[in-house]
Amino acid sequence: MFNFLLILSLLSMILTSLVAVAFITLLERKILGYMQIRLGPNKASFLGMLQPMSDAIKLYTKEIAKPYSSNFMSFFFSPSLSLMLALMLWFSLPIFKPFIIMNMGLLMFMAILGMGVYPILMAGWSSNSNFSLIGGMRALAQTISYEVSLIFIILSNMILNNSMDLFKTICLQKSFMFLMFFFNFILWMISCIAEVNRTPFDFAEGESELVSGFNTEYSSGIFAMIFMAEYMMIIFFSTFSSMMFLGFSFYSVMFFISLMAFNFTFIWLRATLPRYRYDLLMNLSWKKILPASTFNIFFFNFLNLVTK
């Protein structure tokens, strides 16, 4: 009975996240439309509610383009690997606490996040296209740079409760500890935007200089899988931020309000800010965010020793 409930919970989580990915694309197109004084999708069903389903039918029924000189296995395997890693990240969250007790959830989060760069690099290299290869290389450098900062920011939060259990961190944040982490929160949001390749840090998919980046040669269903993985990472980081910095439980109303606020922020930034310059992005990571997050580790470690 316990195994059946566990499998049912995991399946429901996967299906819910996939449905959420479909409708966050509709949310983004609607918000961008109103910010640009236009309607956005409004033809499919009432207010365009079936637009995600129409997009899915269109993408998964189109012919799959097979570049003649591409590396066949890597080319078709990398999108599914990207989507699989995005789904596996959800298992690190303390959502199914009675069924999955993960005392090292943070370690699992960092391990899966570190593997996320391989599908992008594999997709860019296996396409045998200069544009795709440059897009993959830029994504590799950008992702590695900001993952270091992300890990340092999380570690500075974890020092105060001396645990890698995310559930204990949520319990700690309920005592308004997030007021101490406000500077960390600003660094975290900048690093998250760079990690998921969103505007103004969308250099992996720079349409103006790279055509479409590492996914230039992709089309049909395999392009849709890359698309789904990217938006699933946005939803995951919004969920993780709500738990890590605000301490809201997964089953509370305030959690869903904060989750939608984070998702709206990602979309809002896309409609507001122009693309950053790549050299300034790397300088921001290595010369500003990384030293600041390193200082936070020493500060919270010192604070932890003093309070003991």
What does this structure look like?
It is a single chain. 70% of the residues lie in helices and 0% in strands. It has one domain (69-307). The chain has helices at 2-35, 51-61, 72-88, 105-115, 117-126, 130-158, 166-173, 182-195, 207-210, 220-246, 253-272, 278-307. It is an all-alpha fold and 308 residues long.
Summarize the structure.
It is found in: Mitochondrion inner membrane. InterPro entries: NADH_UbQ_OxRdtase_su1/FPO, NADH_UbQ_OxRdtase_su1_CS. The protein is mainly alpha-helical and 308 residues long.
Largest sheet: none
The total count of helices amounts to 12
Q: Nearest-angstrom radius of gyration?
A: 20 Å
Average pLDDT, to the nearest integer?
82
What is the string of SSEs from the N terminus onward? HHHHHHHHHHHH
**Low-confidence runs of at least 5 consecutive residues:** none
Subcellular location: Mitochondrion inner membrane
EC number: 7.1.1.2
Family: Belongs to the complex I subunit 1 family.
Transmembrane segments: 72-93, 105-125, 131-155, 176-198, 218-237, 244-269, 289-307
